[in-house]
Design a protein that fits this description.
268 residues, five-stranded mixed sheet, three-stranded antiparallel sheet, 44% helix, globular, binds adenosine-5'-diphosphate, transmembrane
């Protein structure tokens, strides 16, 4: 039909590029779309039953002292486990829904000038509460307040993900620095920590869904493994790229590079 979109790739080969290969990717594209729709639908379907389960677990936990005797000794611990696992599942579902929305929503919608300085302030404050008595030293270096043409909520969620990771993967009392600077017309937003870092072979795979460096590390920090995939998609929608540097035991830096076309105006 006239509505149907074709997806194909063209490659030139051989001496003087005399061989032309046209590959029809329509079917692959359709399959990718079906997978995305499927993930979005499953996430939606799981959300409601999980809300009901979590609600009842909470009711039971709140009223455990009223349960009939003889009490079951493992009951409080079992309820606790059920609650934390249900929360983990809910977080994964929410992140999957955020991801599928990022993949399908029009990236030109809701564009506005987003001021960097207040954004960094707000994320740093959230990260300080998240750190709590782990007492990280979270500082901001933002000498020129630029505005980025983008989606404020999406940018906030991307930067939060990076900064909260810095808190999760940096030992207590560690340093985390949020920095904004404009250099050679590009804008650089970087988050630097002196935490546990990682071996270089992990870096190219960090933004894959559910990629995590080791499972035990993951379980104790309670992440979903989707945070950096969300970051990648948000940056893609802002024509920006993620640059990662890290050394085991020394720390990591995650830098978002924004092109000039996205930077609006610099206050003197
Ligand atoms: P998670 O929910 O597991 O944190 P992410 O997608 O946000 O998932 O990150 C993927 C993996 O990258 C993490 O599991 C962690 O191993 C590693 N990682 C992310 N940020 C840092 C950091 N600042 N320092 C060390 N490792 C990190």
């Amino acid at each position: 039909s006239s509505e149907k979109k074709l997806h194909y790739s063209i490659t030139l080969y051989g001496p003087e590029n005399r061989l032309l290969i046209v590959r029809d990717n329509t079917r692959i594209h359709q399959l990718e779309q079906m997978t995305k729709d499927f993930v979005a639908n499953v996430s939606h379907e799981l959300r409601t039953p999980l809300t009901v389960i979590t609600g009842y677990i909470e009711t039971l936990s709140d009223n455990i002292s009223l349960l009939p005797a003889p009490p079951i000794p493992v009951m409080p611990r079992a309820l606790d486990q059920m609650q934390s696992q249900a929360i983990r599942m809910a977080n994964t579902i929410e992140d999957l829904l955020i991801l599928s929305k990022l993949e399908t929503a029009d990236s030109q919608q809701d564009l506005m000038p987003v001021s960097i300085a207040p954004l960094l302030e707000s994320v740093a404050n959230d990260a300080r509460s998240f750190s709590g008595n782990r007492n990280h030293n979270i500082t901001i270096d933002c000498k020129t307040d630029t505005k980025i043409l983008g989606n404020s909520k999406e940018l906030q969620s991307a930067i939060s993900n990076i900064v909260f990771n810095a808190v999760k993967y940096t030992p207590d009392n560690g340093n985390i620095r949020l920095k904004w600077n404009v250099e050679l017309n590009n804008g650089y937003l970087s988050v630097k920590d002196d935490g546990i870092g990682m071996e270089p072979q992990h870096i190219p795979r960090l933004t894959e869904r559910f990629y995590r460096i080791d499972r035990s590390r993951h379980a104790s920090t309670g992440g979903t493994g989707l945070g950096l995939a969300i970051v990648k998609h948000v940056l893609l929608r802002h024509d920006a790229t993620l640059l990662v540097k890290s050394r085991p035991g020394r720390g990591s830096s995650f830098t978002c590079q924004f092109p000039q076309s996205r930077l609006l105006r610099e206050a003197a």
